Amino acid sequence: MFYLYVRVVKAKDLPTNPMTGSCDPYIEVKVGNYKGKTQHFEKKTNPEWNQVFAFSKEKIQSSVVEVFLRDRDMVLRDDYVGKVVFDMHEVPTRVPPDSPLAPQWYRLEDRSGDRKVRGEVMLAVWMGTQADEAFPESWHSDATSVHGEGVFNIRSKVYVSPKLWYLRVNVIEAQDVESLDRSQLPQVFVKAQVGNQILKTKLCPTRTTNPMWNEDLIFVAAEPFEEQLLLTVENKASPAKDEVMGRAILPLHIFERRLDHRPVHSKWFNLEKFGFGALEGDKRHELKFSTRIHLRVCLEGAYHVLDESTMYISDQRPTARQLWKQPIGILEVGILSAQGLLPMKTKDGRGATDAYCVAKYGLKWVRTRTIIENFNPKWNEQYTWEVYDPCTVITLGVFDNCHLGGAEKPVTGGGARNDTRIGKVRIRLSNLETDRIYTHSYPLLVLQPSGLKKMGELQLAVRFTCLSLANMIYLYGQPLLPKMHYLHPFTVNQLDSLRYQAMNIVAVRLGRAEPSLRKETVEYMLDVDSHMWSMRRSKANFFRIVSLFSGVISMSKWLGEVCKWKNPVTTVLVHVLFFILICYPELILPTVFLYMFFIGLWNYRFRPRHPPHMDTKLSWAEAVHPDELDEEFDTFPTSKQQDVAKMRYDRLRSVAGRIQTVVGDMATQGERFQALLSWRDPRATSLYIIFCLIAAVVLYITPFKIITLVAGLFWLRHPRFRSKQPSVPSNFFRRLPSRADSML
């Protein structure tokens, strides 16, 4: 995409106004109907601006570029000082990596352009693309309606996620803990806080002045460390009252950074305790250091701090850079354009969309520039990432910018000033062939309380270049996460809590950038609500399981038809194959693997030509009930009326009841297997162990091929020799007892 660039550097030797005796200069760049202005300086004849203006070549309808220098007048019309005119056909073209065009001094001309006037201005004019280094910081002709701080919110930027650490606090014991009530021994626990994260140890089971816990408390911390570790030892004086008996405030930078599973050294820390001194008056609030606490604290560098779901993980490297391996590839993404976007807000009584795109992969976030009031925006921006694992996902989201300093209002009503989500695209790198450019349009779908809505399409160009094929193949046999996640794993509850805290930290840190990457944008990209209950998602996952077993079910139906001789020719062929495998058992496994090899070759013809996109049918989003959608978008805890919450609770109980029944049936079948040898039913166990003895003798004296042949022929017998009643083993198994009899 080509742009006309005008760099206004400075001016010198400007004439003063004879009325005021001073000059308040500013520059106005005019190309056709587009005008851009610099700031004005008061009483300065040698101003410096160093500002760049960019005009889209597609929208230029003029053959000249006019640069006016004016003297600002607060009362009357601004005075004309001079101008410089450039012919568009004479403007040079610059393509990086060419060096920047050197600015030159130009003499100012009068209105008619016939003669020179006093004053000179330093300018550079060239034709370039959006890849020009001047583009990100330049004033755009497309953004003339943006005001104030909104100018900073339309620029493209690259962000880096903060470096996250797991902080492990092992609370071992405390000494000399004294209760305020000297008549009884304290029963204490330790409360630890890092920023907004608060965790507590269990209550010491015994009342003692030297309690022990040996508990691990895990926090998330981000560099640079701004928070401190605040520890308080509290006494459970009563069920409703906790007494603070001492505290310690420890900066995080003092703790050891661990790169493996070796234990770190423990340390004793004194607690500050504010109590009554021996004397009244001045020593009443004397600072004491009587209680000590024993801790083993470290910053875990061998873990990967999860701030996104492992299903869509884009980075799996450990925190410590020393443990990183070499990249195995390069990912190049061209964010080209979007088509058919819907109006997201109203400006001056008409619909408008100010779209920008955000891409997240690994630690690097990118944000394109905002295209103002355009339903078919073109960005044509290219970004590059290093790839350390092919089984990762890049996420791209399109948003409507609601922070441009205007008087826009959301289409949906309300006064919220959040950037509205337009849609999301995920691309798994392992789905891409190496060194191939994929140019494809992806639908932008958003699920709203009113239902599913297609917001438009996003056109992307993606290429994954492999640097080392051997390393990439080697990675397929390695664990997805660093080894510490498997040597010393966290519990599921810990991972959920830590991921939530990590997402909050990332959102806060990126929100402090300029321009900020807003919290709602970061949360949408990181799927902050993916763990929340949704009837729609539950149905979608259930039908995913059903489709997963559809192949097995189809195979079992086919075998059932073979056994029932529905197609005698097929059944005879199966008998022939069965006899061959019985005679040559060494062919069984080679036949199975050769069969899978040919299936893979056959399916190669039908391989996907483009990466998959969001599937509305798979997500069960097309036929979802409005009340289920309303429940999915409800807050937590619920903000609905009592009767609505009661209805949804009853519906959830109904679904949970069915799940409970299925789980109970599975437990019953497992307990029946255990009952075969547990003598809960003495007659059944006696029959089973006698059968096992007879079977052992028969299998010992009979060749295995004969046993297999007889079993196969019995299984494939003609329907004339079959009974419609259940088989004897099935009847025997269903009569076995389970522990369901003992349940209340």
UniProtKB/TrEMBL annotation:
InterPro entries: C2_dom (IPR000008), C2_domain_sf (IPR035892), C2B_MCTP_PRT_plant (IPR047257), C2C_MCTP_PRT_plant (IPR047258), C2D_MCTP_PRT_plant (IPR047255), MCTP_C (IPR013583), QUIRKY-like (IPR047259)
Gene3D superfamilies for this protein: C2 domain
GO terms under cellular component: membrane
Membrane spanning stretches: 460-477, 542-560, 572-604, 687-716
Membrane topology according to the record: Multi-pass membrane protein
PANTHER family, A to Z: FT-INTERACTING PROTEIN 1, PHOSPHORIBOSYLANTHRANILATE TRANSFERASE ISOFORM 1
Protein name according to UniProt: C2 CALCIUM/LIPID-BINDING PLANT PHOSPHORIBOSYLTRANSFERASE FAMILY PROTEIN
Organism: Salix koriyanagi
